[in-house]
Amino acid sequence: MDAVRLILTSRRALVGSVGGVEILTEVWQAQALAQAIGSRLAVSGPPELRGEALGLTELAGRGCGVLDAPDLDHADLRAAQLTALDDARAALLDLGGLLGEVGIALVALASAADDQGTYWQCMEAIDAADESRDRVLEMLRKLAAREEREDREDREDRSEKEGVVLPER
Is residue 112 within 8 Å of residue 153, measured between CB atoms? Predict the structure, then answer.
């Protein structure tokens, strides 16, 4: 399944979660999906994203590690359903939104936590989600810079062919 579709499924599931166990399960699913997307981009994504994508994989893995792993069938693991990442930009935009929502859900859960264990688990997961989101935003910045560079090169190539001299920046 395409990354964008899986992210949207995760966003809906997170919003529809009721109770701490469901929320933590969806947070874990979101981090596992971020880890899978980071891994996919690190291996076969645009070269300028590979370092940040590897960092995302590590941070999202930490986000899963600070939470108790949910008892899910393999078929229910969204990260395992990732088969395509057709549009890196769209996937990263949506993933950034999901990770922001994860942070908000964790803050609400931590605020209502009755025990210190849940509270600190949420705090560590908030940090991991925030750092993962920072990596996603950096990858989006790098994609935008690449697109701008490619557009500028295309304009220069067209003007060269047409004999037009563009002003220096």
Answer: no
Contact indicator for 87, 1 with CB cutoff of 8 Å? no
How far is it, in rounded angstroms, from Cα 63 to Cα 52?
16
Encoded tokens for 30: 């979101």
Whole-model pTM: value is: 0.88
Q: How far is CA 86 from CA 37, 45, 81, 82, in A?
A: 11, 10, 14, 11
Tell me how far apart the alpha carbons of residues 94 and 5 are, in angstroms, rounded to a whole number. Answer: 10
Task: Give DSSP secondary structure letters for 21-51.
Answer: HHHHHHHHHHHHHHHHHHHHHHHHS-GGGHH
pLDDT in tens, 36-89: 999 999 999 999 999 999 999 999 999 999 998 898 888 899 999 999 999 999
- In the chain, the amino acid numbered 131 is E
